[in-house]
Amino acid sequence: MVTLLALALAATPASTRTVYVGVHLNDVSDFDLKAGRFKADVTVWVKWLGSDDAPTLTFPNAEVDDLDELGTESEGHWHSKRMRLQGTFRGDFPVHDFPFDEQSLRITFALESTEGALVPDLASSGMSPTFSITGWNYEPFFTASVDEKVLGSDLGSVTREGQNAHQRLVTYAVELSRPFGPYLVKFALPLILILLVSLLALFLQPERLDVRSAMGITGLLSCIAFHFTQADTLPAVTYLVAADTLFLASYVFITLTLVVSVVAYRVYERRPGLARWADRLGVWLLPVVTVAGLWLSIAPAFARRVEVEPVVGPNPFVAVPTSHVSVATLDTPGSSGLAPLRRCALVTKTADGHFRADLAVKAPAMTNELVRLLPDGGMRVRWRLREDTRWSDGAPLTADDLVYSLDAQPDPLRTKVVVVDERTVDVFYSDRRTEALAGFWVYPRRAANRLGLDGGRDALNQSLNEGQLPSCGPYVVEAFDAGTQLVLSRNPHLATTPPAIERLEVTAMSAKAAAQALVDGKLDVVASLTPDALEVLQGQARVRLLEQPGDQAWMLVPRLKDGPFADVEARRALLAVLDRGALVKALEPLPTHVANGWSVEPCPTGADCPRAPAAKSLAEVGLVGLEVPLIVPTIRSKDATHAVLAEQLVAQLTRAGLTVRVVEQSPTELRAAIGQGTNEGLSLLSRDAADPGRFMNVPGEAGRALNRPFGAHFDAELLARYTRFKSTLYDERRDELEAELQAAWFVRLPMLPLLVSSRMAAVRADLLGPDWGKADSLWWNIAAWHVAPTAGPAER
Q: Could you please report the per-residue DSSP string of 526-551?
């Protein structure tokens, strides 16, 4: 497998690779707003997976003075190259809001699309806490943006002669703002004093026009001179800036004081009372009108920059009153993969494996500002709720619910949670793990407190499944009959796009019976298919099959604490006598292949696949004649996948000389026993391949205890490999490290790999939208499910 991976990576075209560009800003100097330039000293790096050929970065807005290569590093097919860049950078610095303006110092990198897709390595980027520029405030963190650019030139290329060059641009920006205090003293205070002196003229006797006019004219000239002094610090622009508005208002103010003085002087001899009334009116009215006008003019400069949230409108598809779904079991409303229809997800993994923001405004990622790597080796992840998020009872979701939900889901790597505002929390971790970006289930604090729940995750999930707690998922429970039927209706307060399907009627039945009902037009969705059900559906024109390739790993889990399988030689001997190809054939037509790990591709003949060392015979390791309990999940049908595999395993192990006793156990009890290390004999287990920690056979839930060596099957070397795999935040790097981890795992055999199979589901052919891919759930895009227009919206 490792050799195959190497060949695949070496052959990968550069245009398909992702290239990460990161920056550390060492210093900024000579920021000249008028010239639109600044000097910067930056350390730049690129990271990529694939061939050794480094991508060629260009710097569109830089005049490079010095570019030094600091070195390259490689580990397998993961490479990095570092450079130090010193130069002058050009920028566009709008001054519409001067002196209340904010400026962005931008450093832009470009890469031709033929060399890869350039993305920002934002979480790893940083800057010095202080720069060689004064008079500005800034936060020492970047923002980043990605743009596409098409050039009307082939840039001299021979292979692409006559074709426009395409570039991907990544721009890092430092946001600067002017300190308000100093500008209040330097700008506002002198202007206010000029206006006050001009206003004082109205307190003199109306007949002293010479003095009053002198004060006004002097104030007007002073204001004009001050205006020119301020304008000299700005670039020559053709638009009015906020300061111009202030000065224009000041001109009007001073001119009006002169007008009032003239009017008072003219009427004083005949009507002195009216003259004094005009002065008093001017003293009070002029400042009020001027201040009000100024505020209306410059208020936009103070407007808070709000983050643009996704716009959610009505579902564009024709509403479907009811859709009928079957599942294998229906012990709770959340069983058989239905939980995502009711639970609240901050983000959802889509078919392409990336996260989509649902309740969150944006999905945290290494390429955006929501993730920051901390100097202590940890990380900070920011979660911000959409403004319109509501529970199904109409109550708003708040940061208080996020904190409560995190407390209900303990994580030893989580160090603290900080509430930023009523919709935002910062979550801090002691280590950098990619699962921190996958979000968490959200529960309602107030509703849980009313029910007196203790805040434990199991209790909360049970109450949510039973409909006691409000939901913020696509559906709410309308009716539930344990083991028989579940009715889900559309959540009236859903923050995201509502599903076109108004109600889901879920019925528990065997997969084979459900497949026949789908063919007969009595069902719309069969959520899970077994081999016999798949055989019924093959070739049916009214049915569309959905596959999630290689998602499910089937293992034999031995008891490693003591007994015959504590010795790796015994496990190797046992694996050697299993005909796993026969297991694949027995499950046809279900897509499966022999497993050499938990998520590897099939190994062609002659390929360098991971293989355990040569195994001894069962007789040599003392297993012949041994009575072994085979623990299997409760079998509800003889055609179920577990039943087929159990029958095959019993036959193969019996032929090899063992005495096998099948013991059925509920799936919950079986998984608990394996997690606690109390399982006996051999256990037949299937798990999704998302987390390798599930396959290390170490006591602890889902790998949370994998922080120290645990016997020979999980020694220091395997722990180190697992830790490196879990700690990388780059998907491409994770794939390579996972391949190496599986090869080391296969030598130690903590579990005996049997098969890797696809998850299969089926829908009626005219039900459009269902798509599985790499998503965690079949229901991830339920809002996009709709009936083809030709079929009409009639209920089935």
A: ES---HHHHHHHTT-TTEEEEEEEEE
CA distance 499 to 770: 12
Q: Exposed (0-12), middle (13-18) or buried (19+): which is 514, by Cβ within 10 Å?
A: buried
Beta strands in 642-708 (DSSP E): 659-665, 682-688
Half-sphere exposure of 710 (CA within 13 A, CB side): 17
Distance CA 253, CA 288 (A): 11
Integer Cα distance of 552 and 689 in angstroms:
6
Tell me the pLDDT band of 601, cut-offs 50, 70 and 90: low
Q: What is the pLDDT of residue 574?
A: 93
Beta-carbon contacts of residue 543 (< 8 Å; ≥ 6 apart): 518, 519, 537, 762, 763, 764, 765
> For residue range 289-340, what is the model confidence (pLDDT) as tens digits?
777 766 665 566 555 454 556 667 777 777 788 888 888 777 667 666 788 8
User: Is the torsion defined by CA of 84, 85, 91, 95 positive or negative?
Assistant: positive
- Identify the three-state secondary structure at position 396: strand
Residue 81 near residue 88, CB atoms below 8 Å: no
Look up the pTM and report it.
Answer: 0.80
Tokens of 210: 């010479």
Question: What number of CA atoms fall less than 13 Å from residue 671's CA on the CB side?
Answer: 11
Q: Coil, helix or strand for 647?
A: helix
Joined together, the tokens standing for residue 75 give: 């580990």
Closest by CA position to 93, among listed 151, 174, 186, 188: 174
CA-to-CA distance for 562 and 397, rounded, in angstroms?
49
Residue range 457-495, pLDDT digits in tens: 778 887 777 778 888 889 988 888 877 888 999 999 988
* Tens-digit pLDDT profile for residues 707-760: 888 889 999 999 999 989 988 888 888 888 888 899 899 989 999 999 998 889
CB-facing half-sphere around the CA of 183: CA atoms within 13 A: 13
Residue 68 pLDDT more than 90? yes
Rounded Cα distance between 70 and 65, Å, is 16
Distance CA 731, CA 174 (A): 27
The two tokens of residue 123 are 């979480």
d(CA 481, CA 332): 9
Q: Which residue, 342, 440, 455, 341, is CA-closest to 383? A: 440
Cis omega (within 30 of 0) for bond into 589: yes
Count Cβ atoms within 10 A of the Cβ of residue 59 and give its class: 0-12 exposed, 13-18 middle, 19 or more buried. Answer: middle
User: Picking from 99-108, 125-134, 312-321, 400-409, which range would have the lowest pLDDT averaged per residue?
Assistant: 312-321
DSSP-based three-state secondary structure for 304? coil
